[in-house]
Amino acid sequence: MSLTTCEWKKVFYEKMEVAKPADSWELVMDPNLKPSELAPGWKQYLEQHASGRFHCSWCWHTWQSANVVILFHFCLDRAQRTGSVRMRVFKQLCYECGTARLDESSMLEENIESLVDNLISSLREQCYEEDGGQYRIHVASRPDRGPHRSEFCEACQEGIVHWKPSEKLLEEEASYSDGSKWKALAGLDYNFFSRRWCILWGALCLLLAYLQFSFRSPDFF
Question: Which residues form a coiled coil (predicted)?
């Protein structure tokens, strides 16, 4: 069992103990898991925007990816109060040496925690018919170095279409920034009691008083 697998299990069991203490859940790694091929009573959650670091076991090349795909199948036995989660992290090929060996990704604990939160949200929705809350989108701490290369991605080769999170978040961030900019401009235009407007009104009053005094006709010389 790899260190990353142990970390996944540790985080999952700790969070499920808090989320559903009355039920017993297990997490099993299954490299043969297929998307949408579900046994009766099983549900699916597909994480399409995880971030991870890959290390080539042949040439020792390392790379960061924000396009790691993780597939979960899960089932809850309500009578026995037991549940099972099967999980597959899709691998990537090294594009430096071109070897056909697929390499696994490693993830930071903080990344795993956010991904487990997403999994539990899906569990609550599909197994317990509860509101799972808002899903978390996690982007790699380092920016992507170029476009996603589908020919080296195991998930893409198996027909899973997944978007690039950095591009999606950049669009959302741009929309939010534009909205904030227009709100700020609107605040400057219509807040007549702001400090800037008070100074402007004061200067205008002084100018009017000066002009009135300057053009007043004298009573005598």
Answer: none
67 and 148 in contact (C-beta within 8 Å)?
yes
Tell me if the pTM is above 0.85.
no
d(CA 97, CA 104): 16
- Burial of 177 by CB count in 10 Å (0-12 exposed, 13-18 middle, 19+ buried)? exposed
Taking only the tens place, the pLDDT of each residue in 47-68 is 988 888 888 888 888 988 888 9
Q: Per-residue pLDDT tens for 185-215?
A: 444 444 445 556 667 777 777 777 767 766 6
CA dist 143 and 24 (Å) reads 39
Buried residues in 12-48 as b, exposed as e (16+ CB within 10 A): beebbeebbeebebebebeeebebeeeeeeebebebb
The Cα–Cα gap between 54 and 131 comes to 34
DSSP string, 160-179: -----HHHHHHHHHHHHHHH
